[in-house]
Amino acid sequence: MSKKVIYSGIQPSGSLTLGNYIGALSNFAQFQEEFDCLYCIVDMHAITVEQEPAKLRQNALQLLALYLAAGLDPKKSIVYIQSHVPEHAQLEWVLNTITYMGQLNRMTQFKDKSKNRGDNIPVGLFTYPVLMAADILLFQTDYVPVGEDQKQHLEFTRDIAERFNNRYSDTFVVPEVYLPKVGARIMSLQNPEAKMSKSDSDPNASIFLLDPPAVIKKKIKRAVTDSIGEMAYSDEQLGLRNLIDIYSAITGETTDEIVEKYKGQGYGQFKEDLGEFVANKLSPLQERYNEYLQNKELLEEIYRDGAQRASAIAQKTLRKVYKKVGFLPR
Ligand code: TRP
User: Fold this and answer.
1) 3-state secondary structure 162-210
2) Do the Cβ atoms of 84 and 303 come closer than 8 Å?
């Protein structure tokens, strides 16, 4: 109980990219030594945009296999599926009653995702941040390791926690963003001004964690750079800078060291080496992933156990909340 709590979640909605790996997944295993960690597969968030049911089930199982392949140890951490723990939806309802529409209207992710939908914007898309707040607050989370794009949701979560605490007395820990040590945001290989995204329509824009080595190398070779042709880590060479960031995240070398190493060589050798490094880094992960995926029984055992342990903690928080808002105990 003395350890600080880390909570994070990933949507089971398609293949994870190298950006997800460097920005999130690759750090998750390390946290297990120092913190009490919960890692969630947020399938309830995933259905805020249309999903094919069979595909969603498959994606959830695949994401669990990927979590394990990345080194999450179900003995050390709680790894579970959001829809298996009903307290998420229960707390969300209560939080809905203290959330203001104005706040949700200002969420940039909501604005992006509701664009061009006219009157047909799902309410779930609107209340997405409230469910995320419930995820985090149920477990009295201290730190949430999220990227830049989720900071606004975390600010919202803090705000709701404080509002509840002020209105009903101290109940929730007010969580903080946990900034990763390597801060690099991985960008699209085809447009270095846009984030590398699993939903990019151009398959060459993203490296997927399960891409075969030859595909990884080809995508890196084709990555957009510039006509300057000189190794440098600069704002004028965003494409190259992104590749250097990837190189640095994968090898642990600093960006200065990398620029120095390839000075005066053009980009050919650099890209070739980078392709090699990324492929070599991902292939053991892919092997472990495939092993886990073949062991459905083990996966089921792990997510059932995770759901039980998560529920036990979540119930405690929810009981407090229900009592404070004035619900009669049953
Ligand atoms: N909204 C997050 C994303 O898209 C996923 C998420 C849901 C999450 N619940 C969370 C992340 C709780 C951290 C903590 O990346």
Assistant:
1) HHHHHHHCCCCCCCEECCCCCCCCCECCCCCCCECCCCCCCHHHCCECC
2) yes
Whether the pTM exceeds 0.90: the reply is yes
DSSP 239-264: HHHHHHHHHHHHH---HHHHHHHHTT
Cβ(255)–Cβ(233) under 8 Å?
A: yes
Domain span including residue 130: 5-178+296-325
For residue 276, report the distance from its CA to the centre of ligand 1, in Å: 31
Could you tell me if the CB of 144 is within 6 A of ligand 1?
Answer: yes
Mean pLDDT of the chain: 95
pLDDT value, residue 181: 64
Do the domain assignments include residue 74? Answer: yes
Helix orientation angle between 296-325 and 268-294, rounded to the nearest 10 degrees? 90
Q: Does 113 participate in catalysis according to the annotation?
A: yes
Q: What is the largest CA-CA distance in the chain?
A: 74
Domain contains 189: no
Residue 150 in contact with ligand 1 by CB distance below 6 A: yes
